[in-house]
Design brief:
343 residues; alpha/beta; 10-stranded mixed β-sheet; two-stranded antiparallel sheet; 14 strands
Amino acid sequence: MRITAITCVKNEGPFLLEWIAFNRLIGVTDFLFYSNDCTDGTDALLDALAAKGGVTHLPNPAEGRNYQMEALKDCAHRDVVKAADWVWIADVDEFLNIHVGDRTIPALIAASGNPQAISVTFQFFANGGIGAFEDRPVIGQFTHSHNPDLWCAETAIEVKTLTRRDFPLQYYGAHRPFFRKGLPEEKRPLWTDGSGRRVPHKFLVAENPRRIRRFLAAGAREFATLNHYALRSLDSYLVKNDRGDVNREHRAFDTAYWQERNDPAWEDLSIQRYLPELEAALEDLKSDPEIARLHDASVAAHVARRDELLERAEYRVLAETLRALPPLPPGEAGLMAELGLAS
């Protein structure tokens, strides 16, 4: 089974090897990376990995537009995508945590009844009070998240989607594929959630404009969860704030973004079952001197950028503000204040 992972990156050098190694463990065979405006050696590391095989690295074709959507429009015409049995579109801070069989994508597909698409629900992992960046697996550092059945007082949450080759594709979206409007009912794809259940009708046909990439989280993760490490350490969040959104221009990562994803109410260690194999795979990747050198250079650039940012008054204020914020989603904090329960 050929499974191609597609992602867009900008200054993600310190995290590339973990993401590639993890995805290979769960069955990804090929990678298509689009990079733009990298200053930390991400592009050089990807070029070195591409020379070893299994990785394709391209410059993002977008010019001052929606970087991710332009890349996804381009990817559909690439051989590494056209030859894939399944396509997995995700970001470098997202890890597909599979709970069935041998914990691989083929096991997830089999448990789900071999549908044409599988949409897996996000679980946002909190910062956990970790200030300093460490060059070790992210999945081993961050262990607490929101209650995965209900997030920020909403009953709907984001997904990412595995797509089979014969999906009646109009175009790939960042969170889900789309088929053309008016497709006859008998030709609509068999599409399941992370528990192998058919996705809701309005999600399937994208009829609800505000929920075209969301559905109820409760009960949707029996077979798989998408662990999203959107914050990581405070150091890395400052660098992410400086970098901006890799996928869209003019989108900042601020205190609201932090608060919405920094709810540590739930401990979940399940993904750590992959750690022993992941650490061995990382050691194997770093046994190549050039790969190891370029990885270490990206780590050094990440730390140096953090130091540069903390020379600026506005970033020192941001860091102190984030440290002082309560680990509560804004809706919960507001309700506590309204009820007189806030300290």
